[in-house]
């Protein structure tokens, strides 16, 4: 276990260095933040003064080294657009994005796994075929289209739910949540469904395919020969072995949801990190963009580490090795 953690932590450090270098190299040439801050009417003296204040007069290597030094201690500088510390901006938006992602993940697992098991055990049933057709639609339809259809039905026509915003939130220290207020829960419903549709469809099809493979293996036939009930055979033996790929995919998808919730947040004007990065790209706000990419990279490597540890807990063959 210690050897595994040491290896993974080394990989985390190397990946974060590569991500930092790539983000710095790419975003450093996207635009001139001095022009965006001062506008076209600023004098050359004002531009040069601001360039020196932001450290843009230094060489690219020096700028990158200073960026890494500050990033190690959680200091990503000051936003060019908001004139606030980048860490404060991210911490203010992070709860909204994580709340949306976690709710979508819970719905995806709670719905996708039972649907996958059912469609595998009764592949020719009417409900099973309907679920398979629905999963094909869920994978094929883009998220912005799903979001707009939900807004059209539940906000414009029925007027049951709010079409934008997060509703009322409760602040618990630095964390804010809408799950403790009625308007917050209502505001969370449509973005969560929009974000979860693809995940539910993918997990359902993955579990179905794995279950169809596992139920034909010898150990399942042996379990039947021992006289075990269908419930014990399918839910205890077959499902447990079918969930190993689901653990990997779910971990990767959580990282993807954090990184690519931008579309859903833009459709519903959700005040999360997606909206923050969109505004940063429009304004060439390099500190915010670099911090966002570093956070996404750190999220992926951390989730992969957690997935590896879960694999050790679930699969005895890995522990034996």
Automatic annotation (TrEMBL):
Membrane topology term: Multi-pass membrane protein
Every ABC transmembrane type-1 domain range: 94-311
Spans through the membrane: 12-31, 98-121, 133-154, 174-198, 243-270, 290-314
Pfam families per record: BPD_transp_1 (PF00528), BPD_transp_1_N (PF19300)
Record's keyword annotation contains Transmembrane: yes
Key words of the record: Cell membrane, Membrane, Transmembrane, Transmembrane helix, Transport
The keyword Cell membrane is assigned to this record: yes
CDD domains in the record: TM_PBP2
Subcellular location: Cell membrane
Residues in coiled coil: none
Cross-referenced InterPro entries: BPD_transp_1_N, MetI-like, MetI-like_sf
Family: Belongs to the binding-protein-dependent transport system permease family.
Official protein name in the record: Peptide/nickel transport system permease protein
Organism: Aminobacter niigataensis
């Amino acid at each position: 276990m210690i050897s595994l953690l040491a290896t993974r932590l080394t990989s985390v450090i190397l990946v974060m260095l590569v991500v930092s270098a790539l983000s710095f190299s790419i975003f450093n040439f996207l635009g001139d933040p001095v022009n965006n801050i001062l506008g076209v009417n600023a004098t050359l003296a004002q531009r040069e003064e601001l360039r020196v204040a932001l450290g843009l007069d230094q060489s690219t290597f020096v700028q990158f080294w200073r960026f890494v030094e500050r990033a190690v201690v959680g200091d990503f500088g000051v936003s060019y657009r908001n004139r606030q510390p980048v860490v404060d901006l991210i911490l203010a938006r992070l709860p909204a994005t994580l709340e949306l992602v976690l709710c979508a993940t819970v719905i995806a697992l709670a719905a996708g796994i039972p649907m996958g098991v059912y469609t595998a055990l009764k592949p020719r049933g009417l409900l099973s075929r309907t679920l398979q057709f629905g999963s094909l639609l869920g994978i094929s339809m883009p998220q912005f289209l799903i979001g707009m259809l939900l807004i059209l039905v539940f906000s414009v026509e029925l007027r049951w739910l709010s079409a934008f915003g997060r509703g009322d939130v409760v602040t618990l220290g630095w964390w804010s949540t809408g799950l403790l207020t009625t308007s917050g829960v209502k505001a969370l419903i449509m973005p969560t469904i929009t974000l979860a549709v693809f995940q539910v469809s993918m997990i359902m099809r993955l579990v179905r395919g794995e279950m169809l493979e596992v139920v034909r293996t010898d150990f399942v036939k042996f379990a039947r020969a021992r006289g075990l009930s269908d419930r014990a055979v399918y839910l205890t033996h077959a499902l447990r072995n079918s969930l190993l790929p689901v653990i990997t995919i779910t971990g990767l998808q959580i990282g993807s949801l954090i990184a690519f919730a931008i579309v859903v947040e833009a459709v519903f004007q959700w005040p999360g990190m997606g909206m923050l990065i969109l505004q940063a790209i429009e304004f060439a706000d390099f500190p915010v963009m670099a911090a966002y990419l570093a956070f996404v990279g750190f999220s992926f490597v951390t989730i992969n580490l957690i997935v590896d540890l879960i694999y050790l807990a679930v699969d005895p063959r890995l522990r034996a090795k």
